[in-house]
Design a protein that fits this description.
Blueprint (H helix, E strand, L loop, with lengths): L9 H14 L5 H14 L4 E9 L5 E9 L4 H9 L7 H9 L3 E2 H5 L5 H11 L6 E4 L8 E8 L7 H22 L11 H11 L4 H8 L3 H14 L5 H10 L7 H13 L12 H9 L1
Antiparallel strand pairs: 1-2, 1-5, 3-4, 4-5
Helix pairs in contact: 1-2, 1-7, 2-7, 8-10, 9-10, 11-12, 12-13
């Protein structure tokens, strides 16, 4: 569901922008912990956990590269490991194959084996009967992120899925930064890629950039794809934010506004990124 259909308040939209912006500066487990607590203010839930999993063939989970437990019960985590639940957890197994958001109750409907049903019942005894799991596959490493938000009412509010879908690319990059240094987790941009990125920051389309640089639109698209991959980004706005954070290109307030506007423009809540509204302009100054 699109954000424009959810009637989010201006305050809630600003909170989402703030989380997306601040995710670019997360470098430690404590900062990641604090960021996820802020997500809980937008998506009320009882328990949160995040981890990076090393992926193998056919979407198998080979190991955990990073784990940040915000509020999952320690007893449940111990039982999870002791009982080898990673091999029967329906949500976990599905997640690393598809990396699509999951509402647990829907996934649990397909739990037919005794082992799976036993897992669901045991999780329920810890208050983990309903929740949402989201995450993203890394474009550079054989890793994928998983973020689980557990709460009894999670399935009753479609807005929760929409909000988490919009935040997950930023949460993914933040979690990656806690595990790997920025230089280690990206490849340097070429001179041409930096040129293309600079015009992206000015809000230019691929066609406009091709005319400016005197190259084909197809070549610009190729450079944009490389930029997104190297900067661990799923959108142009996210790539711009990463570049500003890592000082890969020069930036100004207007460039930051362009990024903030691009994050929201897909929801239809704000006009074209080239002319961000006064509210967004003020928000950019605060951030």
């Amino acid at each position: 569901m699109e954000l424009k259909q959810l009637n989010l308040t201006k305050c809630e939209l600003q909170d989402m922008l703030g989380i997306a912006h601040d995710a670019m500066g997360v470098c430690s487990d404590q900062e990641m912990h604090s960021l996820l607590l802020r997500v809980r203010e937008l998506v009320p839930c009882g328990n949160i956990i995040a981890f990076l999993g090393e992926t193998g063939a056919q979407g198998t989970l080979k190991g955990v590269a990073k784990l940040v437990n915000v509020s999952y019960p320690a007893g449940w985590l111990g039982a999870y490991l002791e009982n080898g639940y990673a091999t029967v957890d329906p949500v976990l197994r599905s997640h690393f194959r598809q990396f699509k958001h999951q509402l647990w109750s829907q996934t649990y409907q397909g739990a037919v084996s005794d082992a799976e049903q036993g897992f669901v019942k045991h999780a329920g005894s810890y208050g983990l009967s309903e929740g949402i799991t989201v995450g993203q596959r890394s474009n550079v490493r054989a890793l994928g992120s998983l973020f689980s938000f557990a709460g009894e009412d999670m399935g009753e509010h479609p807005r929760h899925l929409a909000v988490l879908d919009h935040l997950v690319p930023h949460l993914h990059v933040a979690l990656m930064r806690t595990a790997f240094s920025p230089l280690d987790s990206r490849s340097p941009l070429s001179a041409r890629e930096r040129e293309v990125l600079q015009w992206m920051m000015e809000g230019k389309t691929n066609w406009e950039t091709s005319r400016i640089l005197g190259i084909s639109e197809r070549t610009v698209k190729f450079h944009v794809q490389n930029i997104l991959a190297k900067l661990q980004s799923s959108t142009r706005g996210q790539a711009i934010a990463h570049a500003l954070e890592q000082r890969l290109v020069g930036g100004s307030l207007s460039s930051l506004e362009t990024w903030l506007a691009s994050v929201c423009s897909r929801s239809g809540s704000f006009p074209n990124p080239g002319s961000p509204p006064q509210t967004l302009r003020l928000l950019a100054e605060v951030l």
